[in-house]
Amino acid sequence: MGREDSTRGGQARSSPRLLRYVGAGLTALSLMLSPALGGCTMFNSTTSTPRDVGALIRSLWDFNDRAASETRFRDALKTLGADDALEVETQIARTFSLRRNFATAHQLLDDIERRMTPSSRPALRVRYLLERGRTFNSAKQFDTAKPLFQQAYDIAKEEPALIGLAIDAAHMFGFSRDKDEALRWTELGMKLALGSEQPDAIGWRPGLANNLGSTERERGNLDASMKHFQVALKEHLARSKPLQIRIAYWQVANVHRLQGKIDDAMAIQLRLEKESDDAKSPDLYIYSELAELFAAQGAKRNAENAKRYAGLALAIAEKDAWMVENEAALIARMKALQRN
Predict the structure, then answer these.
(1) Tens digit of pLDDT for each residue in 291-329?
(2) I need a labelling partner for 35 at 20 to 30 A (CA). Which of 53, 206, 229, 259 fits?
(3) Distance between CA atoms of 11 and 337, rounded to whole angstroms?
(4) Dihedral, CA of residue 55, residue 171, residue 175 and residue 124, to nearest 10
(5) Looking at 69-223, which runs of residues are DSSP E strands?
(6) CA torsion 66→71→72→78, rounded to 10°?
(7) Tens digits of per-residue pLDDT, 58-70?
(8) Other beta carbons less than 10 A from residue 176's beta carbon
(9) Which residues sit opposite 29 in a β-bridge?
(10) Residue 18: partners with Cβ closer than 8 Å, 6 or more residues away
């Protein structure tokens, strides 16, 4: 697992369904933003500020159900005006980019851009730039998205109330193919998050620790990676959210495996398997790690277990169009383990 649409383990992992700061991706933010609360009766559009709109947006997002989120955003528009509505509309565009309907997302953003004026407030301009950039990034056009993220960051960093959006923009550089650049910007985002007591900034801390761990793992720095994943785990434990805690433990166990600590990794992954099964949320990434771990142990019995877990992972992955498109290496590896 990695960033908001990111990757797990030695294998890249960009699944917005399970994680990302995501953004991530996923983005990037299914671990950070609140689940939908069902309505916005507490929101007063006549006295709103940019911060109010941010709270409204967080309350309406459910990154596991983008269509339902779109409906809630459209319902909220009925009570909003001017820049408030345009900010919310940027999130409607995001629901389409997350559903990989990039043409519709860009059309909506084009319409927002036409209605923006030089006096439009900074929060609106930042959200527009972020979502335009995210749409390009989700379509695997990071180089086109990069200057948009830079502009969003430059605007947001000058506005104390927009610290969360400044961190969001910084974290999007984690998708850079240049791992030094990804690390530098993620460290900057963490510095901002640690230096602020605003809830928007504090909420970024576990996700950024996760992203730092992912980047260091990709760079082959496993000890540094483990340090960051343990910070992320501590942050998630403090928030008592079972799914995020399982993901954080998964990251720790994955690095244990890469370090050759097979028994430590196995103990965590078997526990996670039980927890995810009890939650009626079987996780192909847990299955794929268990397949790798049993294969690493050798012996005939363990080889059979490796095949079994590889089959469980494939049964989920091959029915998922996103997985087929984005996790071809993982699918190929599980097929290879089944054949051995």
Answers:
(1) 999 999 987 778 999 999 999 999 999 998 888 988 999
(2) 229
(3) 15
(4) 50
(5) none
(6) 150
(7) 999 998 899 999 9
(8) 21
(9) 21
(10) 1, 26, 243, 247, 283, 285
